[in-house]
Amino acid sequence: MSDDSKYMKIALRLGQRGLGRTWPNPSVGCVIVRSDTDKKIIIGRGTTQSGGFPHAENQAINQAISVYGKDSLIGSTAYVSLEPCCHYGKTPPCVNLLIESGLRRVVIGCVDPDPRMSGMGIELLKKSGVEVVSGILEQESESLNAGFFNKVRSGRPLVTLKMATTVDGKIATKTGESKWITGALAREKVHIMRSQYDAIAIGINTVLQDNPKLTCRLPGLENRSPVRVVFDSSLKIDFNSDILKTASSYKTWIITSKNHDLSVINKFEEYGVEIISVALDGEGHIDLYLALAALAKRGITRLMVEGGATLSTSFLRSNLVDLLAWFRAPSLIGADGKSVFSNLGVDGIDSMHKFELLNHENIGSETLDLYGRIGLIN
Length: 378
Fold this sequence. Notes:
Layout: H1 3-17, E1 29-35, E2 40-47, H2 56-68, E3 77-82, H3 94-100, E4 105-110, H4 120-127, E5 131-134, H5 138-144, H6 146-154, E6 158-166, E7 170-172, H7 184-195, E8 199-203, H8 204-210, E9 227-231, H9 242-245, E10 252-256, H10 262-270, E11 273-277, H11 288-297, E12 302-305, H12 309-317, E13 323-329, E14 338-339, E15 355-363, E16 366-373
């Protein structure tokens, strides 16, 4: 493995830490390496901070200055998982900061798809005499921020459909009993996954049947709960539900139709809920394309859908699922149990919804398989 790949891997691991916290910005990792006479040492590390600011480059440079002094940056190399920004936003451009620091080289994982950037940051670095190497671990770098890339390119967040089933694909018995299909280790894994997503979505039926909290409840992750999104076209949600009772503490959005009186909406807002009204589709359901566009407009780049069969099926039928995170317990319920999906509209083999296996993980006696939509960056 080359040194560039070695240090880019570290930058990618740093960027991974920010997933779920940096939206609407991407989560970027940065490592600054100084070459001494006989060795290389890392003098600065940085990760994009909550809400997207400060940027990773700023964090790494400040750390290097704090520990080693400003002159330590002269002639050093910065490894950044995403092309540094060159536009003015809430902070000055990172490109300017890198140039002014006296760095000799900047190694970049992948180009920023944002049209305000898209190679311009690289060109500015080169024009200032900084050596630039790009495309190091490019696929891994794009995968890290697939949600951000998806939002920029298609106007919607990356959608992961999470399921927990028996081996035969059942999520409940014929009486509706579903707690718990999977065990404690798998549920802990779900909480870790939640902490890495900007938002988590369920349908109203899941709220009424299970009354979930949809928070991260592992020690150390209590402040990493994502935005909770409920699809509820008729606003049937109970004001005594745990989601509404905790809406003042955890950001909560309800996506509904446009057919509600202002007085009704005001009551939800008094609980701390944001109501997002979108048009219905031709079948009288919430238009998922419009719903995802509304989430993207609010900055959401990564959405995990934890809904039941109705919402999961709707997302699949609309071809809006990018990743499948499928937990399976070594148990069987049989044909009279409730299936994870309802009718997907598959009439022939050619119309099947096709995914490819990206990763397999054993979690105790259970498994987690991650599947990606064919053609997805992985």
